[in-house]
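Journal club prep — side note

Before the paper discussion, L.F. wants everyone to see what a predicted structure for a comparable chain looks like in token form. Sequence:
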Amino acid sequence: MKIDTARLEIRLLTAEQLALWLHDLPRLEQELDCRYGAEPLAGDFRTIVEMQHAATAADPANPQWHSFWFIVRKTDRRVVGSAIFKDLPDPEGNVEIGYGLGKDFEHNGYMSEAVEALCGWALQQAGVRHITAETDADGFASQRLLQKCGFREHSRAKTCWWIL
């Protein structure tokens, strides 16, 4: 599955492609005809990808709600970032989005373009009424991005929750 924007191709990874991302990046790059330049797959981020690989493999009918989406720049086929819907929509129709961008690609509007496209797609899916996102209380860049994409602050404590 993929979503196209003016500058980006946003590709949903299969469970098999998530395994390649974790264990054989050169083979994944070849399969997707891209070069990975996004956030390093290390530490907590690697653990999250491993958990989502397990969730995607366990629910093969719903990869769009468990797997990562690669954000690929069309001009040079560079993976500039990734995004994820963290689980199936809840009973109230909320689904949470998360995202990350490689440092070399910040301040170019790629993530805003990708989040707008992904949220537009998600809101057209059965059972989805709202998109939520969580930011650090001092995560001002991410907060500005969400505001630009139409989110409004829903609650604030140790972290901030946003809703679209």
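L.F.'s comment for the group: The mean pLDDT is 97. Keep this in mind when we get to the figures.
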